[in-house]
Amino acid sequence: MKKSFQSKLKKIKMLILDVDGVMTDGRIIMDGSGREIKHFDVRDGHGLKILQRYGIKVVLLTGRQSEVVKHRARDLGIKEIHQKVFNKKEVFAKILKKNKLAPEEVAFLGDDIIDIPVLKAVGFSAAVADALDVVKKSVDYITKHRGGRGAVRELCDLILQAQGKWPEIAARYEFSEHIKI
Q1: Strand pairing partners for 126?
Q2: What whole-number distance in Å separates Cα of residue 119 and Cα of residue 36?
Q3: Alpha-helical segments (H) within 32-165
Q4: Which fold has domain 3-173?
Q5: Is residue 81's pLDDT more than 60?
Q6: Can you tell me the distance from the alpha carbon of 167 to that of 176, in angstroms, rounded to the nearest whole number?
Q7: What's the N-to-C CA distance of the chain in angstroms?
Q8: Exposed, middle or buried by CB within 10 Å (0-12, 13-18, 19+), for 117?
Q9: Which residues pair with 59 in a beta bridge?
Q10: pLDDT at 1
């Protein structure tokens, strides 16, 4: 991990995530009744649970409205979700104010052009491996993993490593802390 990333990640108190294309692979399945189905990666979810266990708040900020997102957020213990948001930067400012945080205390993971204003405003910005090229050019870090396929977990682990939590996690789960992401 680059030292500049590490210093930025040490300050992170909140991770904000886009949903479609970040927590999912971007595909939406609808049945004949119009019910929506999304694919979520279980390891991404576990990474978010660990992150929250270590005091990092997780917020979802998405342009679409979906009951599935509410269910997934509840399953993961994520209390703050913002759906059907067309101006993410405006809502980001409200999130900062509500949580009494400075921009440099927030990381954001996105994939599409609607995410760029927030990516430029946060302390640590990241894009999934399969994000649009224009998004990749706007961030501090591009994940090795694709959206819905481990990108969220990768960022969670990077934050925890930078904040010195990795040895404790390694001991808890009985693996070598020398395994790097």
Answers
A1: 109, 141
A2: 28
A3: 42-53, 67-76, 88-99, 116-121, 133-136, 151-162
A4: Rossmann fold (3.40.50)
A5: yes
A6: 8
A7: 9
A8: middle
A9: 16, 80
A10: 55
| Contacts of residue 106, Cβ cutoff 8 Å, sequence gap at least 6 | 12, 13, 14, 15, 16, 92, 95, 96, 122, 123, 124
Backbone angles phi, psi at 109, to 5 degrees: -120, 120
Please name which of 22, 161, 15 lies closest in space to residue 101, comparing C-alpha atoms: 15
Task: Indicate whether 176 pLDDT > 80.
Answer: no
> Which of the residue ranges 93-97, 156-160, 162-166 would you say has the lowest mean pLDDT?
162-166
**Mean pLDDT within 4-20:** 95
Contact in structure between 38 and 68 (CB atoms under 8 Å): yes
Beta bridge partners of 107: 15, 124
Q: 127 - beta bridge partners? A: 110, 142
Rounded to the nearest 5 percent, the helix, strand and coil shares of the chain are: 45, 15, 40
Nearest Cα residue to 12 out of 134, 116, 106: 106
Q: Which pLDDT score, from 0 to 100, does residue 177 have? A: 66
Asked whether the whole model's pTM tops 0.90, one would answer yes
What does the alpha-carbon distance between residue 13 and residue 31 come to, in Å, rounded to a whole number?
38
User: What is the predicted pLDDT for the residue at 168?
Assistant: 87
pLDDT in tens, 115-147: 999 999 999 999 999 999 999 999 999 999 999
